């Protein structure tokens, strides 16, 4: 075969062929496709492959090839599919490899490549599929990876990447599968991820990520998620992808709470102290053509029981001038927003009032009392609003 210079296609995959890949093949000026995958070839990838000027696909996966990736392959400007996976390649990914602007698929998984991803990776303007998983790559993920606007598959798992996930990844609007698992990534998951509207599969497990996951409800197309073994916290979203996730896909995050098997719900605990807990639902309007849509305050318990409710800091959903607001699951299973207070009563229009509890099934924002006052008037006082809701004042 070494002297068959007129060859255009070579397909030898899925055999038990053996031989030195750097010696048994020649220069083929007309060659546009070669697949040597799933054999027992050994040796190193020869720089002479770069002399095959029409080469479009070079596939040598699952062999015993050693050595480094020759940077000369970058001179093969017609290459659009390069698969060197599951061999024994070492060294860094050469910067020269980023020259083929026609490259659509690059698969280097399952080697022993080290160093970082070249910043020049952003020059792969046509790249759709990138798999660098199961290597020894390190450093940070380059920001230029956000320039791969046609990318729909990205797998960087099982490496040693560290530092933060670049926010530029939020620009990958066509991305459907993203796997960054089994690295040493830290910091919060970028909120820019909410722009990944095509994303269906996300794996961020086994990193050192922190922060909450509340913005994941924006990812409407997400069907599979694995965020296990990080430092994530806050409520688990009541969306299908989380409710259908296995415990193994969420475990290892001590700060996560929610109505998922194996996790602690955000519930109130009782002790001996006086309390005032105010549950207020959003005010949609006041007077002058606006209407007061809903309002309820819960003050004390019947017979003025003495108790204290301790709130888990992980259940905090916001802070303001009136204190912290907590997401709480009541014994009925209802979820409410709660604003704790140290007094036993609250002044509405200068008069102390005691209101019964109005339970709502959705976590809603808390409205400070001053807005309740501002929304009332002689024509429509707060007492009438409460009466309309069946809440005694």
TrEMBL record:
It is a single-pass type I membrane protein. Pfam families: LRR_1, LRR_8. It is found in: Membrane. It comes from the Eukaryota. The keyword DNA-binding does not apply. The chain crosses the membrane at residues 275-301. Keywords: ATP-binding, Glycoprotein, Leucine-rich repeat, Membrane, Nucleotide-binding, Receptor, Repeat, Signal, Transmembrane, Transmembrane helix. Its main location: membrane. GO terms for molecular function: ATP binding. The keyword Transmembrane helix applies. GO terms for cellular component: membrane. InterPro entries: Leu-rich_rpt, Leu-rich_rpt_typical-subtyp, LRR_dom_sf, Plant_RL_S/T_kinase. Belongs to the RLP family. This is MDIS1-interacting receptor like kinase 2-like. It comes from Durio zibethinus. The gene is LOC111299757.
